[in-house]
Amino acid sequence: MQKGQIQFEYEIYDSIDELLTEDKDLLEQAREITSIAYAPYSKFLVGAAAMLENGAIVKGTNQENASYPVGICAERTLLGTAAMTHTNVPIVTMAIAYNNLSAKSDVPVSPCGMCRQSLSEYENRTGKPIRLILSGMEGKIFIIENTGNLLPFSFSGDHLLGL
Hints:
163 residues, alpha+beta, 4 helices, globular
């Protein structure tokens, strides 16, 4: 038997004021767009804003539904929009912020498993890693250099093709 270990490093910032201007602007846009998220059931508003390699900014919010499985997360809303409006253009950085109307929003949260898989697929599709900025409406901020770090052993098209 052998044992393996997976580790990755990420940056931790105490506030938005510590970020580089470009990162600060992107995170501010993600925080702002939470205001138009549709989350009447969970009251957990999520906004995402991404800088694409061509300089375009694409945004998305979560969209809930009374039939819970029908809803869609902000990250996947953004990925679909980016894929349709900027076909095959890599995402350089994505900022994800949330506003929990029922509790504090001061601890970074990471994408759900379905979104992690979707981010991994987008990275594979464009051949470029996606850098993530994770935050609430205030407090600490995490920066992860590659979304692949969030989903080790990810499933990919290579598995379907037997590669």
